[in-house]
Amino acid sequence: EMLCVECICAKHQKNGVEDFGYGKGYIYVAEELGRFLNLLSDVIEAGFHVVLTAHAQIIKFEQPDEMGAYDRYQLKLGPKTGSRTAALVKEWADMVLFINYKTFSVATDKEGKKNKGQGGARTVYATHHPAWDAKNRHGLPDEFPLDYSYLAHIFNSSTKAPPVLATPPAPPQVVDPPSQTAQEAWGQMTGGQQLAEDQQPSTEDALKPHIPSNIPASLRDLMVQHQVSENEIQIVVSKKGYYPMDTPIAKYDLGFVQGVLVGAWQQV
Question: What is this structure's pTM?
Fold first, then answer.
């Protein structure tokens, strides 16, 4: 933004953006920044990701349909009222992520009149809130730790699966054969028909986790190697807020599978 201001002032031989008068200088700066964002769009179309960083500032905000005002975090772009650069950048970007230290207040006396801040975990906020500007077009959680693995599936859609380590699989656990009572119960559940000896599942097959064949091959190979079931993956993914618990892995976005589940397999 500062380079845009310097460029406009040099082109029109002005000492500062305020010398234009009647807010015209801010219009020129917004037009110049718009041309810059258009160039960045060309860079994106060429296959590169673009990330813009900015500081935040706390300003007093008042909604037209509400009584009173409140403070909120906004981009520290164009602090003057007539500036349009912050709005241009927010509209252009696919994601506006607000990063802050998550703190909480703790009472220091019995009456609860004195408090001090504690905490300090670096947290990313991805959706709009009265206290800050944020947005995303990728279904990210409202907030998550400042960890690239939460965003990797967006950028690493073509990430290849890590090489499979040549380590022997763990030997299967030895379990006792089912008792006669269990066999009778199985017969009752299957309509009273006892399974033939050659049709009964082996102990080794019974111990294998459920891994559907329609899971992408790169992820399925890892699940087979490490004996991880589909249900275990669903539990982890739902706890992180990516997909509901009952969503089959086959319906996960391929970029998410390759970028997060495969790309960060050790963390998963």
Answer: 0.51
